[in-house]
Amino acid sequence: MNPTNGILNLRLIYAALLLGPIVFLGILLTVLQNRTLSPIPNLELIGLGVGFVGASMALFIPKIMASNHKVETGLDSRYFLLKMIQWSVLESNILTNVTFFFLNNSITNVYVSIVLLAILAFLFPSENERKRYFPN
After folding, report:
1. Would you call 75 exposed, middle or buried from its count of C-beta atoms within 10 A (0-12, 13-18, 19+)?
2. Which of 5, 28, 95, 112 is most solvent-facing, going by the fewest CB within 10 Å?
3. HEC letters along the chain
4. Whole-angstrom Cα distance, residue 89 to residue 106?
5. What are the φ and ψ backbone dihedral angles of 79, each rounded to 5 degrees?
6. Rounded to an integer, what is the distance from CA 94 to the centroid of its chain?
7. Pick from 60, 51, 127, 122: nearest CA to 90
8. Spatial CB neighbours of 93, under 8 Å, sequence gap ≥ 6
């Protein structure tokens, strides 16, 4: 696999992963504007905890995976796997907080989702990043 094709494929997957939670959050914010719900206790705190753990995991996973040189697969496939795990951890936490907003109508969960989306937006794949994690 050509490195430029690998990065291009990752960028297409990245765009799709980033767009999914944005569309879901946008639909919920516009469709569910004036509804009243009885709040579910501690759902905001659970969302904050999930968001913090997810952001921490997404930022530490590359360092852990890049330091593990026992994997005998190619450089591109290791970088591809690293990015897919990193993005899926963040996306699952974003969607969890958006779902908590749907259930609880708490703006705190929206803020956590937006922060996690910003972190995901900064994890754009590049050839320089691949070389930084896997210099060989």
Report:
1. middle
2. 5
3. CCHHHHHHHHHHHHHHHHHHHHHHHHHHHHHCCCCCCCCCCCHHHHHHHHHHHHHHHHHHHHHHHHHCCCCCCCHHHHHHHHHHHHHHHHHHHHHHHHHHHHHHCCHHHHHHHHHHHHHHHCCCCCHHHHHHHCCC
4. 22
5. -65, -40
6. 7
7. 51
8. 50, 51, 53, 54, 55, 116
User: What Rg value do the Cα atoms of the chain yield, rounded?
Assistant: 17
AA identity, residue 89 = V
**What pLDDT is recorded for position 82?**
84
Q: pTM for the full model? A: 0.80
Structure tokens of 45? 């705190």
**Tokens linked to 120:** 């995901």
The pLDDT score that the predictor gives to residue 1 is: 45
Phi, psi angle pair for 103, to nearest 5°:
-80, -35
